[in-house]
Backbone:
């Protein structure tokens, strides 16, 4: 809100554009990743067990969920 470009504050229109970009960029992506990950975990009990039992798995699994399911399957 306080940002300046060349010493000038951003206009309301510019700020509104940035906020809309943040909201739209953040909502569908995270909802899609979360939903797709839950569907995959639900379909694969062995993966579910690995995610629960090995604390190292969730981080790399998140990358794999993103890589493998690129479209919203919900
Ligand atoms: C699983 C979650 C997310 C995925 C898969 C994702 C994916 C992406 C991808 C692929 C890009 C394009 C990057 C590029 O062109 O180099 C991008 C850009 C962007 N994302 Fe995300 N995103 C996620 C979460 C979020 C969240 C939570 C926010 C905001 C709170 C956000 C805001 C943005 C914005 C503003 C850009 C444009 C950046 C720019 O103009 O350089 N994203 N995102």
Residues:
């Amino acid at each position: 809100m306080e940002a300046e470009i060349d010493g000038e504050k951003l206009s309301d229109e510019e700020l509104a554009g940035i906020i809309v970009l943040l909201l739209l960029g953040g909502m569908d992506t995270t909802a899609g990743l979360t939903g797709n990950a839950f569907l995959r975990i639900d379909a694969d009990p062995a993966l579910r067990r690995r995610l629960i039992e090995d604390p190292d798995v969730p981080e790399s699994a998140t990358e794999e969920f993103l890589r493998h399911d690129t479209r919203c399957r919900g």
In short: The radius of gyration is 19 Å. Residues 12-43 form the longest helix (32 residues). DSSP finds three helices and two strands in the chain. Residues 32 and 72 are 5 Å apart (CA to CA).
